[in-house]
Backbone:
């Protein structure tokens, strides 16, 4: 029981970006699970999966893969149904780990296995089956297989609404995913409607001053910037950032990720001083939060490079862009797309 409580608390801290609190809790939970592994291999496997998710969140993708491989080996030692259910969770996590390393062939293979096992265990229209469907859809979208992605996104959203509606935390992210695919197909009005549904859902579920509301404002803001009104799009992103600064604090990873996004739009509008001030704040905080190479730091360097090019500072631009490329190569390999 102590291990499960520590694991749950650690996972919550990791999900909200409190990584320094999450790591020790998840490590201690795993130590306790290992002490009883002979009695309950399923709980050990799920403890490994939780720690792997945390490793992925902090950018340690190699550790994430290694821990998940161990989790899969452990869970397959038991024939019990609960072990097969845990295996379905772990297969989905392995697929996600490969996708973060841009190993899309491997990722797709594990998503197929996860979908098949969930379908066998729960049925095609069960909410649990919709989880790997929703994740698999993102891989198909990245790979340009939009027709297949659309089919999966529509199925995942439909299942969530039918099984969990009218308001549930799983509905907004699926509405956003489907809205983005509609955007790719030029179905702008439908995409706009779904992104506004996501925002309405999050406001209903969490209130006005919650990080999920901030995230939905940012998603809608980017969409509106692209297709409706650039000024209104920036205003929505600014509103989301203000919520994050209040709800999460100045030093939180999500707050600073949004700062880098907003700085990019300020830069595009010629608001160079404001863009640079935001990037400077984000760099100080992210370098303190993240240890070593991370995709967020790569993005930030890329935005700095773009800013320096626009303000006639070519040497600084080259240095920032080289730093961004170096991080991406170290994270994903030189052949990464």
Residues:
């Amino acid at each position: 029981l102590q291990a499960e409580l520590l694991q749950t608390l650690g996972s919550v801290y990791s999900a909200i970006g409190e990584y320094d609190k999450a790591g020790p809790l998840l490590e201690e939970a795993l130590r306790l699970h290992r002490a009883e592994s002979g009695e309950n291999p399923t709980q050990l496997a799920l403890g490994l999966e939780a720690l792997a998710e945390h490793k992925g969140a902090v950018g340690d993708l190699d550790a994430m893969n290694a821990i998940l491989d161990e989790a899969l080996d452990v869970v397959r030692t038991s024939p019990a149904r609960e072990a097969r259910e845990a295996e379905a969770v772990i297969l989905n996590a392995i697929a996600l780990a490969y996708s973060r390393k841009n190993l899309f062939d491997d990722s797709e293979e594990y998503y197929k296995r996860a979908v098949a096992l969930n379908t066998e265990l729960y049925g095609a229209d069960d909410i649990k089956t919709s989880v790997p469907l929703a994740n698999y859809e993102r891989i198909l979208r990245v790979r340009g297989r939009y027709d297949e992605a659309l089919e999966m996104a529509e199925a995942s959203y439909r299942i969530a609404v039918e099984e969990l509606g009218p308001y549930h935390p799983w509905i907004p992210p699926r509405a956003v995913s489907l809205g983005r695919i509609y955007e790719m197909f030029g179905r702008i009005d439908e995409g706009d409607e779904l992104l506004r549904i996501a925002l309405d859902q999050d406001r209903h579920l969490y209130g006005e001053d919650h990080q999920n509301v901030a995230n939905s404002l940012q998603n809608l803001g980017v969409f509106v910037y692209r297709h409706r009104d650039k000024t209104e799009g920036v205003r929505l992103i600014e509103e989301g950032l203000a919520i994050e600064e209040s709800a999460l604090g100045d030093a939180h990873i999500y707050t600073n990720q949004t700062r880098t996004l907003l700085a990019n739009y300020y830069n595009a509008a010629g608001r160079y001083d404001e863009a640079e001030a935001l990037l400077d704040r984000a760099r100080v905080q992210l370098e303190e939060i993240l240890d070593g190479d991370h995709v967020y730091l790569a993005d930030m360097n890329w935005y700095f490079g773009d800013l320096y090019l626009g303000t006639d500072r070519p040497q600084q631009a080259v240095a920032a862009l080289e730093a961004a490329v170096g991080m991406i190569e170290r994270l994903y390999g030189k052949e990464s797309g």
